[in-house]
Amino acid sequence: MPSMDAISRNLMLDSLRDYAKKHIPYDLIRDKDQANEFPAAILKDMYDHSILGVHLLLVPEEHGGVSGGTYDIYRICELLAHIDLGIATSVFATFLGTDPLNVGGTEDQKKKWLQRIAKENLMVAYAATEPDAGSDLINLRTRAEHVLKNGQLAGYRITGNKQWISNGGVADLYTVLAMASGGPCWFLVERDMEGFSPGKHEDKHGIRLSNTASLALDGVYVPKENLIGGVEGQGLLQAQAVFGYTRVMVAAFGLGAGWEAVEQAVRYSQQRIQAGGPLSDKQGYMHKLIVPHAVKLEAARAYIEDVANRLDSGEHGLQTEGAIAKYSASEAGNRAADDAIQAFGGYGYTRDFPVEKIKRDIKITCIYEGTSEVLEMTIYRGRWQEHLKTRGRYYLDIADRMDALHDRNPNTGARAAGLALRTLAAVMEECRLQKLTRHQAVTFKLGRLISVCELAYLFAEASAKEKYSESVRFDTQAWQAMARIFARDAAVQLATEGPALVLGAVENAASMASAADMDQVRAVQKGMMEDMDLVAAKLKQTFKAR
Amino acid sequence: MINVSPKCIGCNKCVPVCPFAAIQLIDKKAVINEACTLCGACVQVCPVQAIEISREETATRDLGGYKGVWVFVELVEDRAVGGAAKEGGQPAHAKQGRKIRPVTFELLSIGRKLADQLGEELCAVLLTDKNYGYEKDLGAYGADKVYLVENPELYEYNTDIFSTAIVALTHKHKPSIMLYGATIMGRDLAPRVASSLYTGLTADCTALAIKDGQLLQSRPAFGGNIMADILSPRSRPQMSTVRPNVMKLSDPIYGKIAVTVREDIKIDKGLRRVKVLERKLEKADAGVKLDEARVIVSGGRGMKTKERFKHLEELCRLLGGVVGASRGAVDMGLKDKTHQVGQSGTTVSPKLYLSFGISGAVQHIVGMKASDVIVAVNNDPDAPIFNVAKYGIVGDAHEIAPKLIEALKKRKP
Amino acid sequence: MHIAVCVKQVPDSTEVKINPETGTLIRAGVPSIINPYDHFALQTAMELKAANGFRVTVVSMGPPQARSVVQMGLALGADDGVLLSDMAFAGSDTWSTSYALAKAMKKIGKVDIILAGMQAIDGDTAQTGPGIAQQLGIPQVSFCVKVDVDGRKLIVRRLIDGGHEIVETRAPALLTMIMPKDYVSKYPSFPAVHSSLKKPCHTWSAADIGAEAQYLGLKGSPTQVAKIYPPPQREKAAMSGGSSQEAVEKILEILARENFVE
């Protein structure tokens, strides 16, 4: 769906912000986190279409929703993550649970169920994962057996167990993945159906406000109309179809929660006086604990927005791009939160301050919706295809684009990004020649290096734009400095880790000696210190102590 | 008119300084939209002087004949009306007349200085049902004349009646300056008069001065984050409102009586289009009369909790003061809004302002910087409040407050 | 009856920062919001609409991005919206702004009640509302906290210095609104925002409302900004620190020296 106009989107963001300001004070969140309690009243308000109605973003207008596009949903998810990742997860679970319907449902099913979801403010859960089938969903054991009436198929009896289901104990409607004789299928199961019992609310490390529960299905009968799409065996395809876009949502979580941690640290550092001045004046502190994370998060933002805009303009799939966005943002956010605790020192280690909770919460973003390891593989597989299809030109062509960009605008880090891309192309080619992708470790590492390069070049391009997207809180000077910092680091990382990866697995690889143009990689480092200082100053200006 | 010449190099220095977000960089050139107020902030920062503001002088009205600094006299409406009147406690003003609100005397004090600089007269404008010898006090604070309109219809304030009368007086006598208190009454009346006269009105001035024969009116904007100097170059009278407790009260010279000039202005009863059905006055609450307090003990976010904030009430009891609160504290729920000091609260000028855990955001400072002695306690040595305070104590406000209470109790016999 | 509500888009002045080096305002990154007093005026209008079935038009004068506050008015329940947008309005002070808004009211036609926020948090002047009333020749009631309508009678509760009043006037009239203590602002739900897109929203230029150039912009404004500058820096306080006990002793010393205690 195309995204809505900026004014409508921002009015919705304002309403959500206002709701949080009035009804979700931090004390409440802290208490619920401590008590491991799902904030039912708050979620009820969020789904209540006379108060907010967040779930309506996922429902098309013709069924009573507000037809939110990917960009709109990314912005809302980012804001929810700033507020609390547990609440965000609960909302996201409804989005996820509604997806199989949106993607695979028949017109009648969509009409019936989407309208009910919209009108009755239904909370939905996405029940795929099982005790023995997480990343490895093909192993699912939940069975859906045919039930015949008068020789005709009347419905299915579903038996099995689901694990780690968000909204598991509180949803009204569940989309359950089960194996029928024709293959995996999604079934719509209502909470009060006989044989269906949610387990207790899990005691988790983080996102404790999100209700997570196991589900036991003991011969739950559903009529055949509840098989999404009406055809068996479509389940995994239906799930994969939306990955590009559900991954963007979780990327938004990493971005929002990561930035919340960084903002808190920046504000705190201006108040905390040690050794004669505020911590925010100490270059070592800022350059180590704050600036790099701001940079990586903004690089992730540039990437997320590119994927979101492409999906909104009609492109389909983009699973690899979604994977890069989710992987990068969640890992960046996780590290940002960790250093945020460090930035707060002893105070950060207590529950009084929000950063230790953000760290506990944000870890899940590296696990759910595709673990970082699965995503590294996914990223590698997607881009390996491109490398092969273009006979190794894929990243070289982008590097050429970077050099052209650098000629037009030398301030975006495009040259450094280009260097990283050329090294990546050389490394991937050598992997192909020497069949190094037979080592799984190589594929994981390639996924990681590919992500860094893709963020570097998209950040360079985004920072070159005349007008930045409404989500960017920094001016051209600051954002371009961040793009330069990210690109420099990317060039260094590729120049060292790329060849090292290859050389560690082979007898010899002569091409690695020139895989990275070390003279250029060294040359582009110039200006790093100044840029880091500039970003530190801009961060202090933008996030003043309260 | 504002114009960006081809000299613009697209350096983007002007975009972020515009207070009204009126500048965008399009195709590497600054483009200014209609939100522009011609304040000139961008002109100041442009490194190549590519931005020009030309202030066209339209046909000027003849301003030469306008002379005289006028001050509107505000009488305190202290008479309950309707149901509230039955509750008793009617003022004794039948014998002594309604009191003059103190801000009037503050305006006369600054008005006197302005009149002296211009070499013009200072006149008070008094609309009342009965004159109770007000010219004595008005004269003591510097008025040369009192333009008196005495009419039974003027027993209480009414927008249309008062504005019509003042407009009539203005047309007759052509003052060059008119000052009003920025009270509820003043802020209702002055804009109506100014609109009718198509003349300039500047609200909440914190400073007034004469520059090249014109009234230079200074006031805070954007919640007090910037100061603006305003002029009304082409219209008369130049009108300003000033909040109570902002201008310094001069020492009255009793015996200096203003000359009363009776003005026979027709007041049409039909002008009373708004009728007062009920008026209820708040009892003088010993607790909350911030704007008249001699001592204020004020708390900010640094007090952290309601319980700790209560210490400040105890301090008030010991020091004979009134509790104040910053906007941050009010927003946190530590104290209710009636105690808020600042731009969106009350402006105060006590002899002692003792603050605990207030950082001194500009919108707060604007409301208390007229205090005589400011003692600030805050654990941030760079807190802006230390820039207006006379004494600064770096420390934990919510620990110091209770200890100070103990120490004060020990001193009292 | 037909109610028109005047709303303004303003920078969130609590977030506005000063660049300490140049002394200029840093506006970048400061969000634009609906003027809180106007928000209250809108809510008041919606309550009257809900109780009496009145028609509500939301009006704003501003650059194209101010459409956001008009749409917010529609999302909160207004029937239609008007954005007055024209380069000719640039530089308008409160007189010129009232002039333009009064012209717009005339074009909208047969407006019975005009509601406006008591002041805008950027200018803080509280002048535009009364200016509109004066130019339309209708009665004004300022500092209003509550309105009730009985036929063409308006019963209004308002603040006065030292208390409050209940006053009566007749439509057409203009009221400027100030929030009471128990006020809670309402924000539109997502579906309300979505359906606001379908409501009529007009953009009018100076020519559309018959506003004459001589009364608009800097040319037409009787007041002019001569200069903008940061608030003056003062000399810093005499500072002391140390333990809480030492701080208390210091405070007592100061209070004694300045004669606030024996």
What does the model show?
The complex is a heterotrimer of chains A (546), B (413) and C (262). In chain A, 57% of the residues lie in helices and 11% in strands. Chain A has 546 residues and is an alpha+beta fold. Chain A has four domains: 6-122, Butyryl-Coa Dehydrogenase, subunit A, domain 1, CATH 1.10.540.10; 126-233, Butyryl-CoA Dehydrogenase, subunit A, domain 2 (Beta Barrel), CATH 2.40.110.10; 242-366, Butyryl-CoA Dehydrogenase, subunit A, domain 3; 372-528, no CATH class. In chain A, the strands form three sheets. In chain A, strands 2-3-7-6 form a four-stranded antiparallel beta sheet, covered by helices on one side. With 413 residues, chain B is of the alpha/beta class. In chain B, the strands form five sheets. Chain B has a seven-stranded parallel beta sheet, sandwiched between helices. A five-stranded parallel beta sheet of chain B has the order 17-16-18-19-20. In chain B, strands 10-11-12 form a three-stranded antiparallel beta sheet. With 262 residues, chain C is α/β, with parallel strands linked by helices. Chain C has a single domain, classed as 3-Layer(aba) Sandwich (Rossmann fold), CATH 3.40.50. Chains in contact: A-B, A-C, B-C. At the B-C interface, helix 1, helix 6, helix 7, strand 9 and strand 11 of B face strand 3, strand 4, helix 3, helix 4 and strand 9 of C. Strand 12 of chain B pairs antiparallel with strand 14 of chain C, so a sheet runs across the interface.
Adjacency order of strands in the biggest sheet of chain B: 9-13-8-5-6-7-14
Regarding CATH, which class of the largest domain in chain B?
Alpha Beta
CATH superfamily of the largest domain in chain B: HUPs
By DSSP, the count of extended strands of chain C is 15
Gross CATH architecture of the largest domain in chain B: 3-Layer(aba) Sandwich
What count of structural domains of chain C?
1
Low-pLDDT sequence parts of chain C? none
Strand coverage percent of chain C: 25-35%
**Mean of the pLDDT scores of chain C?**
91
Please identify, by name, the CATH architecture of chain C: 3-Layer(aba) Sandwich
The global form of chain B is globular
Kindly, what is the distance between the CA atoms of the first and last residues of chain C, rounded to a whole number of angstroms? 65 Å
Instruction: Tell me the Rg of chain B in angstroms.
Output: 25 Å
End-to-end separation of chain B in angstroms reads 70 Å
Relative helix content of chain B: 25-40%
Q: How would you name the CATH homologous superfamily of chain C?
A: HUPs
Q: What is the CATH level 1 assignment of chain C?
A: Alpha Beta
